[in-house]
Amino acid sequence: DLVNLESLNLMHNQLDSLPPQIRDMHALLELHIDYNQFYYLPQEIGDLQSLQWISASHNQIYDLPYEMGYMTELLFMYLDHNHIGDIPWTFQYLTNLREIDISSNDIYHIPDYFFTLPDLELFNYDGKPELICDESSTYLNWAYRGLYAFNLPSFTDCPNVQHLDLRGNNLEYL
Question: Mean pLDDT for each 10-residue chunk of the chain (174 residues)?
């Protein structure tokens, strides 16, 4: 019964699961489970309403429980170097999130709502999100897409573009 525990560091072990009792750790602010053998995180993790920091990098995680989106006090989320394929739709509720690292995963689509999280300062993603436009496009939001380079296209397929948003990338040249 570690109900008053505020920080739990389980890094560099051989763990492959967290017990369901994790949900009873209501005072937990930080959870570090990097460098283990996790394939998934339990849905009970969503009960950690006070959690501000979760670090689960360098595991084997394929799926994230949608319940994680209900951890509304979450500020920092590090999930890099896993096998995550999708971001749960509930992540749109993580309005206090400041930093997220989902690099080195299998994510090919970043939901648009993700780029409107009001406090997001660092978004580390090294995938190639689809940059799509057509003749009906007037506003292209390619902000926080993890781009290092952007070649200004001819925009032949999208001649009506009036606004192009490339903020928050790692652009070194155009």
Answer: 91 95 94 97 95 98 96 96 94 93 86 78 68 64 66 65 78 74
